[in-house]
From TrEMBL:
Pfam families: LolA (PF03548)
Name the record gives this protein: Outer membrane lipoprotein-sorting protein
Organism: Pelagibacter ubique
Keyword terms of this UniProt record: Lipoprotein, Signal
Length: 185
């Protein structure tokens, strides 16, 4: 709880308004983006994990974590599967029960940007805070190149999840087979 309060005050301390031309440029860039490939660092309860992901709009994601279990997260647009490479077991959730349903929907994000006030943080990031279906989602864009650089949500256990993305490639050729969910053997 204390960490959340500190993050909130940190964001407010470095807040300044964003000019509408910048907001329009971000929305235009998002409209032109069909997919993103990137590396990530994810922090949950002071524990860092990293890996790589591919997002294909709308609502598809494939991520592989660089950990001993080689955890993989896959969404086909309807369901979200979490699986460890060395196990035949996996967990499946309706995508609608996770904040990813909003983050993986660029049309939703653009529509929210039309009605929300953007903020500049530390003169580096443009931030939007979205409240939707009991979810609070902070999304961050790089102020210079206007690309998505991360997000902050809460997981199903109400842990703060901060995801920072880097080495971003836009509209790279991808194999759609990576979004096929595993089946029981």
């Amino acid at each position: 709880m204390m960490l959340r309060i500190l993050i909130f005050f940190f964001i407010l301390k470095f807040y300044s308004p964003v000019y509408s031309s910048t907001v329009e440029d971000i929305k235009s860039q998002m409209q032109l983006t069909n997919n993103l490939s990137f590396d990530f660092i994810q922090t949950i309860n002071d524990r860092n994990e990293n890996g790589k992901c591919i997002i294909k709009y709308p609502k598809k994601i494939w991520c592989e974590y660089d950990n001993i279990n080689k955890k993989t997260i896959i969404s086909d647009g309807k369901s979200l599967v979490i699986k460890n490479k060395n196990s035949s077991n996996y967990y499946i959730y309706p995508l609608t029960k996770t904040p990813l349903v909003f983050l993986l929907d660029k049309e939703f994000l653009i529509s929210k940007m039309n009605s929300l006030e953007a903020r500049v943080i530390e003169n580096k990031y443009i931030n939007y805070t979205i409240f939707e279906n009991d979810n609070k989602i902070n999304i961050f864009f790089d102020k210079k190149n206007l690309t998505l650089v991360g997000w902050q949500t809460e997981d199903i256990y109400q842990n703060l999840v901060i995801t920072f993305i880097s080495s971003i490639k836009i509209n790279k050729k991808i194999d759609d087979k990576i979004f096929i969910l595993p089946v029981n053997n």
